[in-house]
Protein backbone atom coordinates (compact mmCIF):
# COMPACT_ATOMS: atom_id res chain seq x y z
CA UNK A 1 0.00 0.00 0.00
CA UNK A 2 1.16 3.59 -0.26
CA UNK A 3 3.66 4.24 2.55
CA UNK A 4 1.70 7.16 4.02
CA UNK A 5 -1.35 4.91 4.47
CA UNK A 6 0.45 2.17 6.43
CA UNK A 7 0.40 3.87 9.87
CA UNK A 8 -3.38 4.29 9.72
CA UNK A 9 -3.96 0.67 8.73
CA UNK A 10 -1.54 -0.41 11.46
CA UNK A 11 -3.55 1.55 14.04
CA UNK A 12 -6.77 -0.06 12.82
CA UNK A 13 -5.28 -3.56 13.09
CA UNK A 14 -4.17 -2.83 16.64
CA UNK A 15 -7.33 -1.00 17.73
CA UNK A 16 -9.74 -3.65 16.42
CA UNK A 17 -7.47 -6.54 17.47
CA UNK A 18 -7.74 -7.85 13.94
CA UNK A 19 -5.77 -10.68 12.39
CA UNK A 20 -4.62 -9.13 9.10
CA UNK A 21 -3.32 -11.56 6.50
CA UNK A 22 -1.83 -10.88 3.09
CA UNK A 23 -2.99 -13.80 0.95
CA UNK A 24 -1.76 -15.18 -2.33
CA UNK A 25 -3.77 -13.89 -5.26
CA UNK A 26 -7.29 -15.28 -5.53
CA UNK A 27 -9.29 -15.07 -8.73
CA UNK A 28 -12.69 -14.95 -7.02
CA UNK A 29 -12.05 -12.11 -4.58
CA UNK A 30 -9.62 -9.32 -3.78
CA UNK A 31 -10.13 -9.42 -0.02
CA UNK A 32 -12.23 -10.99 2.71
CA UNK A 33 -13.61 -10.17 6.16
CA UNK A 34 -14.60 -12.76 8.79
CA UNK A 35 -16.38 -11.66 11.96
CA UNK A 36 -15.39 -13.08 15.38
CA UNK A 37 -16.47 -16.67 15.90
CA UNK A 38 -16.08 -18.74 19.08
CA UNK A 39 -12.61 -17.85 20.41
CA UNK A 40 -11.37 -16.30 17.15
CA UNK A 41 -11.35 -12.52 16.59
CA UNK A 42 -11.82 -10.40 13.47
CA UNK A 43 -9.95 -11.63 10.38
CA UNK A 44 -9.17 -9.70 7.22
CA UNK A 45 -7.25 -10.99 4.23
CA UNK A 46 -6.17 -9.02 1.15
CA UNK A 47 -4.56 -10.42 -2.00
CA UNK A 48 -0.81 -9.88 -2.34
CA UNK A 49 -0.94 -9.33 -6.12
CA UNK A 50 -2.80 -6.02 -6.01
CA UNK A 51 -1.08 -2.74 -6.86
CA UNK A 52 -0.64 -0.43 -3.83
CA UNK A 53 -3.77 1.62 -4.53
CA UNK A 54 -6.03 -1.39 -5.17
CA UNK A 55 -4.58 -2.99 -2.03
CA UNK A 56 -5.50 0.07 0.04
CA UNK A 57 -9.03 0.39 -1.39
CA UNK A 58 -9.62 -3.33 -0.74
CA UNK A 59 -8.23 -3.04 2.80
CA UNK A 60 -10.52 -0.10 3.62
CA UNK A 61 -13.45 -2.02 2.10
CA UNK A 62 -12.79 -4.94 4.47
CA UNK A 63 -12.28 -2.71 7.53
CA UNK A 64 -15.64 -1.07 6.74
CA UNK A 65 -17.15 -4.57 7.06
CA UNK A 66 -15.45 -4.98 10.44
CA UNK A 67 -16.75 -1.65 11.73
CA UNK A 68 -20.25 -2.39 10.42
CA UNK A 69 -20.23 -5.79 12.14
CA UNK A 70 -19.10 -4.17 15.42
CA UNK A 71 -21.96 -1.65 15.20
CA UNK A 72 -24.75 -3.92 13.93
CA UNK A 73 -23.55 -7.57 14.09
CA UNK A 74 -25.33 -9.40 11.26
CA UNK A 75 -28.57 -7.39 11.44
CA UNK A 76 -27.79 -5.35 8.31
CA UNK A 77 -26.94 -6.18 4.70
CA UNK A 78 -23.21 -6.75 4.04
CA UNK A 79 -23.06 -3.85 1.55
CA UNK A 80 -26.05 -1.90 2.81
CA UNK A 81 -26.37 1.74 3.86
CA UNK A 82 -24.43 1.19 7.11
CA UNK A 83 -21.45 -0.36 5.31
CA UNK A 84 -21.51 2.38 2.65
CA UNK A 85 -21.49 5.05 5.36
CA UNK A 86 -18.53 3.40 7.13
CA UNK A 87 -16.60 2.90 3.88
CA UNK A 88 -16.96 6.58 2.95
CA UNK A 89 -15.92 7.67 6.44
CA UNK A 90 -12.90 5.33 6.52
CA UNK A 91 -11.63 6.61 3.14
CA UNK A 92 -11.40 10.22 4.39
CA UNK A 93 -8.01 9.96 6.18
CA UNK A 94 -6.41 8.77 2.93
CA UNK A 95 -7.88 11.70 1.01
CA UNK A 96 -6.52 14.05 3.68
CA UNK A 97 -3.05 12.53 3.15
CA UNK A 98 -3.35 12.66 -0.67
CA UNK A 99 -2.17 9.07 -1.02
CA UNK A 100 -3.99 8.50 -4.32
CA UNK A 101 -2.97 9.87 -7.73
CA UNK A 102 -5.47 12.45 -8.96
CA UNK A 103 -7.15 10.12 -11.48
CA UNK A 104 -7.85 7.47 -8.82
CA UNK A 105 -8.82 10.13 -6.27
CA UNK A 106 -11.47 11.56 -8.62
CA UNK A 107 -12.79 8.13 -9.55
CA UNK A 108 -13.09 7.12 -5.89
CA UNK A 109 -15.00 10.34 -5.14
CA UNK A 110 -17.53 9.37 -7.83
CA UNK A 111 -17.58 5.73 -6.65
CA UNK A 112 -18.34 6.85 -3.08
CA UNK A 113 -21.69 8.28 -4.21
CA UNK A 114 -22.92 4.68 -4.18
CA UNK A 115 -20.14 2.15 -3.44
CA UNK A 116 -20.75 -1.38 -4.67
CA UNK A 117 -19.95 -4.78 -3.22
CA UNK A 118 -16.61 -4.87 -5.01
CA UNK A 119 -14.36 -2.23 -6.51
CA UNK A 120 -14.00 -4.39 -9.61
CA UNK A 121 -17.76 -4.27 -10.31
CA UNK A 122 -17.46 -0.51 -10.78
CA UNK A 123 -15.80 -0.40 -14.20
CA UNK A 124 -14.56 3.19 -13.85
CA UNK A 125 -12.82 2.46 -10.56
CA UNK A 126 -11.48 -0.88 -11.80
CA UNK A 127 -10.02 0.82 -14.90
CA UNK A 128 -8.44 3.61 -12.84
CA UNK A 129 -6.85 1.12 -10.44
CA UNK A 130 -5.68 -1.24 -13.23
CA UNK A 131 -3.63 1.56 -14.81
CA UNK A 132 -1.22 1.11 -11.89
CA UNK A 133 -0.84 -2.66 -12.26
CA UNK A 134 2.52 -3.96 -13.45
CA UNK A 135 2.64 -4.30 -17.22
CA UNK A 136 2.13 -7.88 -18.39
CA UNK A 137 1.51 -9.34 -21.82
CA UNK A 138 -2.29 -9.45 -21.58
CA UNK A 139 -5.19 -7.68 -23.21
CA UNK A 140 -8.60 -6.84 -21.78
CA UNK A 141 -11.62 -8.64 -23.25
CA UNK A 142 -13.26 -5.29 -24.05
CA UNK A 143 -10.30 -4.42 -26.33
CA UNK A 144 -10.65 -7.54 -28.49
CA UNK A 145 -12.56 -7.43 -31.78
CA UNK A 146 -15.68 -9.61 -32.04
CA UNK A 147 -14.92 -13.31 -32.81
CA UNK A 148 -11.31 -13.01 -31.63
CA UNK A 149 -9.91 -16.17 -30.04
CA UNK A 150 -8.21 -15.70 -26.68
CA UNK A 151 -6.67 -17.89 -24.01
CA UNK A 152 -6.82 -17.88 -20.21
CA UNK A 153 -3.87 -18.61 -17.91
CA UNK A 154 -5.16 -22.17 -17.47
CA UNK A 155 -4.95 -22.73 -21.26
CA UNK A 156 -8.68 -22.74 -22.07
CA UNK A 157 -9.52 -21.11 -25.42
CA UNK A 158 -12.51 -18.83 -26.02
CA UNK A 159 -14.08 -16.89 -28.87
CA UNK A 160 -15.36 -13.43 -27.98
CA UNK A 161 -19.05 -12.92 -28.66
CA UNK A 162 -21.52 -10.08 -28.22
CA UNK A 163 -21.76 -7.84 -25.22
CA UNK A 164 -24.69 -8.56 -22.98
CA UNK A 165 -25.62 -5.89 -20.43
CA UNK A 166 -22.29 -5.64 -18.62
CA UNK A 167 -20.35 -8.70 -19.74
CA UNK A 168 -19.24 -10.37 -22.95
CA UNK A 169 -20.70 -13.71 -23.95
CA UNK A 170 -17.79 -15.96 -24.98
CA UNK A 171 -17.77 -19.51 -26.31
CA UNK A 172 -15.27 -21.94 -24.80
CA UNK A 173 -13.70 -23.71 -27.78
CA UNK A 174 -12.57 -26.60 -25.57
CA UNK A 175 -15.96 -27.71 -24.21
CA UNK A 176 -18.61 -25.72 -26.13
CA UNK A 177 -19.94 -23.95 -23.00
CA UNK A 178 -20.76 -20.25 -22.99
CA UNK A 179 -19.23 -18.03 -20.29
CA UNK A 180 -19.77 -14.37 -19.42
CA UNK A 181 -16.60 -12.28 -19.11
CA UNK A 182 -16.06 -9.02 -17.31
CA UNK A 183 -14.90 -6.42 -19.89
CA UNK A 184 -11.73 -5.88 -17.84
CA UNK A 185 -10.79 -9.57 -17.65
CA UNK A 186 -7.16 -9.89 -18.71
CA UNK A 187 -6.54 -12.59 -21.30
CA UNK A 188 -3.91 -13.62 -23.83
CA UNK A 189 -4.32 -13.50 -27.60
CA UNK A 190 -4.38 -16.99 -29.06
CA UNK A 191 -1.48 -17.72 -31.37
CA UNK A 192 -1.76 -19.69 -34.59
CA UNK A 193 -5.54 -19.30 -34.96
Measured between the Cα atoms of the first and last residue, the distance is 40 Å
Unreliable runs, pLDDT <50, ≥5 residues? none
User: What oligomeric assembly is this protein in?
Assistant: single chain
Shape: elongated
Using the CA coordinates, give the radius of gyration.
19 Å
Return the structural class.
alpha+beta
Distinct helical segment count: 5
The portion of residues forming beta strands comes to 15-25%
Order of helices and strands: HEEEHHHHEEEEEE
Q: In percent, how helical is the residue content?
A: 25-40%
Structural write-up:
By secondary structure, this protein is an alpha+beta fold. 34% of the residues lie in helices and 20% in strands. It has helices spanning 6-15, 52-72, 81-96, 102-111, 123-130; strands spanning 19-23, 31-34, 43-47, 139-140, 149-151, 157-163, 168-172, 178-181, 186-189. The strands form two sheets. It has a six-stranded antiparallel sheet with strand order 4-9-5-6-7-8, with no helix packed on it. It has a three-stranded mixed sheet with strand order 1-3-2, with helices on one face. A hairpin with a 5-residue loop joins strand 7 and strand 8. Helix 4 (102-111) runs antiparallel to helix 5 (123-130). The chain starts with 5 loop residues before the first helix and ends with a strand.
